[in-house]
């Protein structure tokens, strides 16, 4: 049986409070997809890292993994660092089907939601 998981992949920061919006996002997604293991992983400064979280999921029997970079743009981390990490994941876990979504900020629906928020902010201030 296929077991699916979703990792929200974020940069990470020194301040633990920085992760709070990502934790809320994780909880919202998990509530909407109860059959999917939804978790966070970080590039640096926070744990778990992407390789560690993926290994944990594989050990739990996950066979399909989707990674969503929760970055606003396709900067160096998404364009250079993430592909290297994905290739290593595929070498380390050849039976794992890995899919990587576009960076959240590159998605038209996400940009529209942010634009809606900005417009509401202007209107609320008027």
Short descriptors:
126 residues, alpha/beta, Rossmann fold, four-stranded parallel sheet, 4 helices, metal ion binding
Number of DSSP helices?
Answer: 4
Query: In what range is the share of β-strand residues?
Result: 15-25%
Q: What is the percent of helical residues?
A: 40-55%
Order of helices and strands: EHEHEHEH
Whole-number mean pLDDT: 92
Shape assignment: globular
What is the CATH topology classification name?
Rossmann fold
Main sheet: strands, sense, barrel: 4 strands, parallel
> How many beta strands in the DSSP annotation?
4
Q: Would you tell me the structural class of the helices and strands? A: alpha/beta
Q: Which CATH architecture would you pick? A: 3-Layer(aba) Sandwich
Oligomer: single chain
Unreliable residue stretches: none
At the first level of CATH, the class is Alpha Beta
Question: Order of strands across the widest beta sheet?
Answer: 2-1-3-4
Rg, rounded, reads 16 Å
Spatial gap, N to C terminus:
55 Å
Kindly give the count of domains: 1
Pfam families: CbiX
Keywords: Lyase, Metal-binding
Protein name: Cobalamin biosynthesis protein CbiX
GO molecular function, one term: metal ion binding
